Amino acid sequence: MRNGHVTERLPSIGILGIMQPLYDDMIPGITDHQAAYARRIAESLADVADCVVGAPVRGRADAERAVREFENDDLDGVLVVMLTYGPSLRVTRVFDQMRLPVCLANIQPEPTVTPAWDMDDMTYNQGIHGAQDTANAMVRAGLPFDVVTEEWPSAAFTERVGRWARAARAVTAWKRLKVGVFGYAMNGMGDARFDETALIRKLGPEVEVIAPGELHRTMAELPGPAVAALMEREDAAFEVDERLSKEEREDHARMQLGIEKLLVEHGCGAYSTHFDAIAEDGRFARLPMAAASSLMAEGYGFAGEGDVLAAAIVHAGHRLAGDGHFTEMYAMDFPTDSILMSHMGEGNWKVARDDEPVRLIKRPLGIGGLADPPTLLFRIKPGPATIASLVSLGGEEFRLVVAEGEVLDSQRLPSLEMPYGQFRPDSGIRGCMDGWLRAGGTHHMVMNLGRTAADWEVFCGLADIGFVRV
What we know:
Number of strands: 19
Largest sheet: 6 strands, antiparallel, barrel
Keywords: Arabinose catabolism, Carbohydrate metabolism, Isomerase, Manganese, Metal-binding
Protein name: Arabinose isomerase
Helix content: 25-40%
InterPro entries: Ara_Isoase_C (IPR024664), AraA_central (IPR055390), AraA_N (IPR055389), AraA_N_sf (IPR038583), Fuc/Ara_isomerase_C (IPR004216), Fucose_isomerase_N/cen_sf (IPR009015), Lara_isomerase (IPR003762)
Radius of gyration: 25 Å
GO molecular function, one term: isomerase activity
Number of domains: 2
């Protein structure tokens, strides 16, 4: 399983090239000439996005037709490129009704103005004032959008458009996301509370409540060979605790397969379970700890305690930066200026260290009052990392609190039988925690390996939510 990661597809992007018929008589063939330019842009972005190049937009009907095609093809976003100057009133209606994330690429065919330029060259490269007119239309429409002003083709242009494209993929996936909640959310946990109607109106994620009884029935109906096959994959991927009985492993495997089957049937890309909702049902032997870890590794968003906001941001982390890991801050370690990151037993094993096996252990757990839940135990891979927390501020106001830093190559904690690591924020634990708490950062969050604050900032701009870096 550890080597079975399915690589996330590249973002799918439509290129909307804008010009106008004014120049046809002056420069015969200009439309074909600039269409070829748009195709070269797409070719330069092949490593970061699958680009669909629309026909050059020369009027309102062209623009509306092109965007409808992008939407019908379920693309992730639209990259707007000025092929020449184009009057914005011809695309104003499109931007007022735009459903896909947008980036305005403020570029031109030639990066240098030279004495050899004639009026044809001036016309080919005059996109900058078309970009100003077009951006003004987007602002008036209240459309969130990103802007990239760069030379093309260049590494900087590819990097910035790639960052926007990944953010567009995450935002578009969010708009279609359903988060399954098995049972209910933890009583009294205020930072996970939100207005469901505001969430779906503003951001898109929808809550789908799934009864624990449905999980129990699904587990019982699973065929034995499917259960055995999952256990075989675990044997190949993990170091399995010899103390785990066949009954314990089969019950865990049935929980994982049952949860995934229900997520597929309900159309959910993320989910959350609460230990009380499982324990109080009375029909389950143990909590689905290892299931959460492996389902995260397969690309599902997850959070504990019925926390929909955290499950949604883990889902976004998968699409934005890959391998979203659900975690929380457990304790501060002042001598190393770091924070111990862990949770009750759920964590994405794709972020585990490469030099240690992921262990499937028999793990006593008093919470929930059930039998020992098989749990995946690992330490987080040392190196750069980023944490992000989705905050509901009331109504349709949301904020993302983000911190970059480093997972330390830190001490072992032999008594901690759940995924863990020590995260040292770039701003130090004092500065980070002061900022985190002032911004209302929640106690559940997503961690991604690597420095991804810039990606999250673009994501927030496209989702029209606040961004706070601490």
